[in-house]
Design a protein that fits this description.
The protein is α/β, with parallel strands linked by helices and about 230 residues long. It is built from 6 helices and 7 strands, in the order H-H-H-H-E-E-E-H-E-H-E-E-E. The chain has one domain. It is about 30% helix and about 25% strand. The longest helix is centred in the N-terminal third of the chain and has 19 residues. It is globular. The model has no long low-confidence stretch (mean pLDDT about 95).
Length: about 230
C-alpha cells in the first residue's frame, strides 16, 4: 500500500486553521464595515485625482498604466486610512492568494484589504483599464473566471472591481458589463453620487470546500480623464 504524503502547508495555513467570511467578521466590528472599506477606495481616488491624474495627459502616459495607477492608489488609500483611527484590516498591493494555489506562482490581487488577526482572510479588488466604455472583456473575465469560481476571494462573500475608465461614458460601460457577465447592476445606497454599482451572484464552490456561495461584486468606475490644471 502506497502512503501518500500529506500536502504541504503554507505558514498561514499552519498558523490559522479557521477562515470565516471577511464580511461577517467586519460586520461584527461595525455593521457598516464594508461601506467604510469602500469609502476608503473612493477617498484614495479623490486624493489621486488632483495630485496625479489632473497633472498629466493620461492618453500619452499609458505605459504600464494599470500597474502604476494601482500602486499609486494603494498609497493614497493608506493616506485616507491614516486619519480615521483603528481598522481591523490593512491594505496590501499585489497580495498573494495562497488558498487555491497550484504548482506555479500563486495569483496576486491588485489590491486587498487583509484581516489583521488572520491574514488568510482577504477582501480583494481587481483593477482593469477600460480604454473605452466598450472594452469590458478583460474586466468581465476577472468576474466570471476568477471571482465566481472562487479562484479569487475564497474567504469573502464580497469583493470589488476597479475599472479605470480611460474614455467614454460610465453609464455605457456599466450597461456593457451587465450584458457581458450577464448580471443585474444596482445602485449602492451609500454611494449614489459615485459611479458605483453592485451585482449579486451564486458561486461555483470547488468540491470539499465551504466558501461563501452568495457573492456580491462591487463595480467602481474611476474616470482617468479629469479637469486639467494650468501649468
Amino acid at each position: 500500500m502506497i502512503r501518500r504524503k500529506p500536502p504541504k502547508q503554507t505558514v498561514g495555513e499552519s498558523r490559522w486553521h479557521d477562515t470565516p467570511d471577511f464580511v461577517k467578521l467586519a460586520k461584527i466590528w461595525k455593521p457598516d464595515a464594508t461601506s467604510l472599506l469602500l469609502k476608503l477606495i473612493w477617498e484614495g481616488y479623490d486624493l489621486l485625482s488632483p495630485e496625479v491624474l489632473s497633472q498629466v495627459d493620461i492618453l500619452q502616459a499609458d505605459d504600464q498604466l494599470e500597474r502604476e495607477l494601482t500602486q499609486l492608489l494603494d498609497g493614497y488609500i493608506r493616506q485616507a486610512m491614516g486619519g480615521e483611527g483603528f481598522y481591523p484590516f490593512f491594505i496590501q498591493h499585489e497580495s498573494y492568494e495562497m488558498e487555491l494555489r497550484g504548482t506555479h506562482r500563486p495569483k496576486q490581487y491588485d489590491l486587498a484589504f487583509v484581516w489583521f488577526a488572520n491574514p488568510r482572510i482577504k477582501y480583494p479588488l481587481e483593477a482593469k483599464v477600460l480604454r473605452s466604455d466598450k472594452s469590458v472583456t478583460e474586466y468581465v473575465r476577472e468576474i466570471t473566471g476568477n471571482y465566481l469560481t472562487c479562484r479569487y476571494a475564497p474567504f469573502s462573500s464580497e469583493a470589488g472591481m476597479l475599472g479605470y475608465l480611460l474614455q467614454g461614458s460610465s453609464a455605457i460601460a456599466f450597461k456593457n458589463i451587465a450584458t457581458a457577465v450577464p448580471c443585474i447592476l444596482s445602485d449602492h445606497p451609500d454611494f449614489l453620487e459615485r459611479e458605483h454599482k453592485i451585482s449579486d451572484h451564486e458561486r461555483k464552490i470547488p468540491a470539499g470546500k465551504t466558501y461563501p456561495v452568495k457573492f456580491r461584486c462591487h463595480h467602481l468606475l474611476l474616470p482617468l480623464i479629469t479637469k486639467s490644471l494650468v501649468f
